[in-house]
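Just wondering, can you check both lines?
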Amino acid sequence: MTPVAILYDPDCGFCRVSLALLLCWDRRGRLRPVPLGGEEADAFLAGMPEEQRMASWHLVESGPGAARPSAAVHSAGAAFPPVFALLPGGRPLARLSARFPGASERAYRLVADHRSLLGRGLPAAARRWADRVLSGSRPDGR
C-alpha cells in the first residue's frame, strides 16, 4: 500500500507532536507526513484557498490534487474516520467518528483553535522527539 499523505503545519509544536504520536501508532507505515506550505502540499491542495489550507490538517488518499482529480482530500474532523481506519486497532474510532461527524468536527475545531495554548504546555523535549519522528529517524532518538 502506498502511504497516505497527511498534511500538517510544520510551525505548530502541538501539530508536530500530535502527528508524531499518530506515526508511532502507525506501525505499518501507512501515513506519510507532508508539511503544509511546501511544493508537494501545494500540489495536493491545488485550488484550495491558502486560508483554508492552513486552517486544519488534511489527509490525501491519492496523488497530488490538480494532477490526480481522483484524489480524496479529507480535512479537519472529516479526516478522523479515514485516519483511524488506517491505524492498528483504530477501526472502532473510525466508525465512531464517522457516525458522529458533527461531534468530530467540533472536537477538532476546539483543539485546533487552541493549539497555540496547548503547544506552549509541551516540553521542548517533546517537540524535539516529534521532529525526530517526523524526519523519519527512530522515535527513541538513535
